[in-house]
Amino acid sequence: MYDLIIIGGGCAGMAAGIYAARYNLKTMIISNEIGGVLNEAHIVENYPGYRSISGIDLMIKYRDHAKDLGVEFVDGQVEKAEKKKDGFLVVSKEKQFESKTLLLAPGLRRKHLNIPGEDRFAGKGVSYCYTCDAPFFKNKVVGVVGGSDSAALAAILSAQYAKKVYIIYRKEEIRAEPINKKAVDSNEKIEIITNINVVEVRGDKLLTTAVLDREYKGSKELKLDGLFIEVGSVPSTVLSEQLGVKLSDNGLILVDENKKTNVDGVYAAGDATNTVMRQAITAAADGAVAALSAYQHIKKKKVEKY
């Protein structure tokens, strides 16, 4: 039996693993993607200690640190989590594991536009990972749907390769961080189209056109070779619901300052919780606190047993 099983391999889960190992807890991290959404960060410039580092390189450092401390890793999707008398049962890839405590750190999954043609052209022009796919659009025309900071970053990176980049946003003004907004505004390749929606994508074998809900420069059709969808993320609630963990109205895991959920022995950390800030550094801090709480829980149970 493990002392702690961590579900999720992003900043929160990995930091929790590092701290748990330092508390001498037998720890396993189960994730279908080590690194999580930070893998999509082309450059990270707000993580203390690193003036500039790619998201993938930062997560490799997390992983190597955890492995050096003896944290075990299992690649796969957790299909079931169940509370038992003396702990928890976790099922992944038809394998079963038992643990005294659980940490939920699933992060968030990308939202889709849910428009005609989106699924058909996924991987054929439509993308949800600009750091993965931007280099494929060298000297092409691409669009970025969204108005958040991630949309601005997608446009900035895409402009390094593409000959033209459109940011397509449904509201009056994009809401990126000032430094990124300035970079967008000063880049001659980037054009912002506001108060407009993409309602369909079309093409033959590959994407060629985004259909808009109103005319732009005399046409509702915008010729594109690629379209990055950056319209936010939502939490996965499946495991939380199986365990009886309380969620907010928008599906976030409710935790206290110690990262405890309402279920004894279950903790949660990172972007999928009711945190006030969703950044790599805050997710890592959440994971560290959650690991301490798990350690204290196990220590208390040992004292009660004897």
Low-confidence stretches: none
Strand-pairing-aware structural class: alpha/beta
The largest sheet is: 7 strands, mixed
The CATH topology of the largest domain, please?
A: FAD/NAD(P)-binding domain
Number of helical elements: 7
Named CATH architecture of the largest domain: 3-Layer(bba) Sandwich
Residue share in helix: 25-40%
Task: Supply the CATH class of the largest domain.
Answer: Alpha Beta
The total tally of domains equals 2
CATH H-level name of the largest domain... which superfamily? FAD/NAD(P)-binding domain
How far apart the termini lie comes to 19 Å
Mean pLDDT metric: 94
Number of strands: 17
So what's the overall shape?
Answer: elongated
Radius of gyration: 21 Å
N to C succession of SSEs: EHEHEEEEEEHEHEHEEEEEEHEH
- Proportion in β-strands: 25-35%
Features:
FAD/NAD(P)-binding domain; 2 domains; five-stranded parallel β-sheet; 7 helices; 17 strands
Task: Give a written overview of the molecule.
The protein is α/β, with parallel strands linked by helices and 306 residues long. The protein folds into 2 domains: 180 residues, FAD/NAD(P)-binding domain, CATH 3.50.50.60; 104 residues, FAD/NAD(P)-binding domain (3-Layer(bba) Sandwich), CATH 3.50.50. Helix content is 26%, strand content 29%. It has 7 helices and 17 strands. The strands form 4 sheets. Strands 1, 2, 3, 4, 5, 6 and 17 form a 7-stranded mixed β-sheet that branches. Strands 8-15-9-10-11 form a 5-stranded parallel β-sheet, with helices on one face. Strands 12-13-14 form a 3-stranded antiparallel β-sheet, with no helix packed on it. Strand 2, helix 2 and strand 3 form a beta-alpha-beta unit. Helix 1 packs parallel to helix 2. The mean pLDDT is 94.
